[in-house]
Structure formats: C-alpha cells, structure tokens
Amino acid sequence: MVKLNAENLLAAAGLSLAASVLVPLLRDLSKTRSGDTVAAGLGVSDRARKGWSCVQEEMEDFLAEVQFKRLSNKIHREGGPSS
Fold this sequence. Notes:
- This protein is mainly α.
- Helices cover 87% and strands 0% of the residues.
- The N and C termini lie far apart (110 Å).
C-alpha cells in the first residue's frame, strides 16, 4: 500500500495537474495531425482526379483525330465529294 504523506500527496497533485494540461494538448495535437493527414489524402486524390481527367481528354482528342482520319481516308478511297 502507498503511504499517504506530504511527498506522495504533492506528487499526486503534480501528476494530476500535468495530466489535466497535457491530455487536452495531446488530444488537440492528434486531431491536428489526423486532419493534416486527411487533407493530404484529399489533396492527392484531387491531383489524381485532375491528372486522370487530363489523360481522358487527351485520349478523347486522339480518338476523334483517328476517326476523322479514317473517315477522310474512306472518302478519298471511294472517290470523295470531288468526283
């Protein structure tokens, strides 16, 4: 059993005070860190979405050019509108 004396009482009071100050600080720090992590994750997701959008637009442009070229070649082979 712990004996109740002035030194132990003072240590207990000091630990209580330290805990009452440190616990809220650590809680806020962990929220800030987790918020930063979530924000970073969303930033990466946003950049990936924008990158994919750019790739998608480039592919659509490429396919449109290929379709145009095929149509142009087909018209040219069949004699075209100039015949």
